């Protein structure tokens, strides 16, 4: 596709449930990033993939959060035992090569708005 | 600790007026600096970036920003604002010590007719 796409655009779930959020990066981009944006805040880094591997997962808040990118393209962010505090917009971004400094220009998807009731 | 500060939460300007959005950062390493714009329901769009070289950077939509190392600032400017510029603006910083970008809290711009 022409840009980064994310599905679903909105997700409402109940506390304690499991959710998966999907990201389709720009074709050919080796680097993929997940961010979380809470209301009134800037995006907060969660995890960075270079190819299939998680090169930096230092931003994941706890072990309920996990992400995969098995074929080096699509990525899935998984949240177990969701809590109300997980409610936020989850943003995905990709860049051509990644690396230090944020990998140059990152292209962002429209985000998935997660609401935990 | 590394941080990015956007001192103004909300700014209102009249259409046609000039604009300056402030951004200050606190990093020990050489910064890579970015400004992004986010419209409602839209993804973040890059306006401009600074990696090295000329400290005055031109971006899309008539925006420019100036890197001032002595002031640890990277303020965004536009000489004449259009109603379509109303959005949320984020300053972001990357460094050689990190793989990610760190974002400020954002400045919401309202444009009066």
SSE class of chain A: mainly beta
Termini separation of chain A: 33 Å
Low-confidence stretches of chain B: none
Order of helices and strands of chain B: EEEEEEEEEEEE
Report on this structure.
The complex is a heterodimer of chains A (117) and B (113). Helix content of chain A is 0%, strand content 47%. Chain A contains no helices and eleven strands. Chain A has strands spanning 5-7, 10-13, 19-24, 31-37, 44-50, 53-56, 65-68, 75-79, 88-95, 107-108, 112-116. In chain A, the strands form two sheets. In chain A, strands 2, 4, 5, 6, 9, 10 and 11 form a seven-stranded mixed sheet that branches. In chain A, strand 4 and strand 5 (44-50) form a beta hairpin. The mean pLDDT of chain A is 93. Chain B has 113 residues and is mainly beta. In chain B, 0% of the residues lie in helices and 52% in strands. Chain B has strands spanning 3-5, 10-14, 19-21, 24-26, 31-38, 45-50, 56-58, 64-68, 73-78, 87-95, 102-103, 107-112. In chain B, strands 2, 5, 6, 10, 11 and 12 form a six-stranded mixed sheet that branches. Chain B has a four-stranded antiparallel sheet with strand order 3-9-8-7, with no helix packed on it. In chain B, strands 1-4 form a two-stranded antiparallel sheet. The mean pLDDT of chain B is 92.
What labels would you give this structure?
heterodimer, A: 117 residues, mainly beta, seven-stranded mixed β-sheet, four-stranded antiparallel β-sheet, B: 113 residues, six-stranded mixed β-sheet, 12 strands, 52% strand
What's the helix and strand layout?
The complex is a heterodimer of chains A (117) and B (113).
Chain A: E1 5-7, E2 10-13, E3 19-24, E4 31-37, E5 44-50, E6 53-56, E7 65-68, E8 75-79, E9 88-95, E10 107-108, E11 112-116
Parallel strand pairs in A: 2-11
Antiparallel strand pairs in A: 1-3, 3-8, 4-5, 4-9, 5-6, 7-8, 9-10, 9-11
Chain B: E1 3-5, E2 10-14, E3 19-21, E4 24-26, E5 31-38, E6 45-50, E7 56-58, E8 64-68, E9 73-78, E10 87-95, E11 102-103, E12 107-112
Parallel strand pairs in B: 2-12
Antiparallel strand pairs in B: 1-4, 3-9, 5-6, 5-10, 7-8, 8-9, 10-11, 10-12
């Amino acid at each position: 596709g022409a840009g980064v796409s994310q599905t679903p655009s909105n997700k409402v779930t109940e506390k304690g449930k499991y959710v998966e959020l999907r990201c389709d990066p720009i074709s050919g981009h080796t680097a993929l990033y997940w961010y979380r944006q809470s209301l009134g805040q800037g995006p907060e880094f969660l995890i960075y993939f270079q190819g299939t591997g998680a090169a930096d997962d230092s931003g994941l808040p706890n072990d309920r959060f996990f992400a995969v990118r098995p074929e080096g393209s699509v990525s899935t962010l998984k949240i177990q035992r969701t809590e109300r505090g997980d409610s936020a917009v989850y943003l995905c971004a990709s860049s051509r090569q990644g690396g230090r400094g944020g990998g140059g220009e990152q292209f962002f998807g429209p985000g998935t708005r997660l609401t935990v009731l | 600790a590394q941080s990015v500060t956007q001192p103004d939460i909300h700014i209102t300007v009249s259409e046609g007026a000039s604009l300056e959005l402030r951004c200050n950062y606190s990093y020990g390493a050489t910064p890579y600096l970015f400004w992004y714009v986010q419209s409602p329901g839209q993804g973040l769009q890059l306006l401009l970036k600074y990696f090295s070289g000329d400290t005055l950077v031109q971006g899309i939509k008539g925006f420019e920003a100036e890197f001032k190392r002595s002031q640890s600032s990277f303020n965004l400017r536009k000489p004449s604002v259009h109603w379509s510029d109303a959005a949320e603006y984020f300053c972001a910083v990357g460094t050689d010590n990190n793989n990610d970008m760190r974002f400020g809290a954002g400045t919401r711009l309202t444009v009066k007719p």
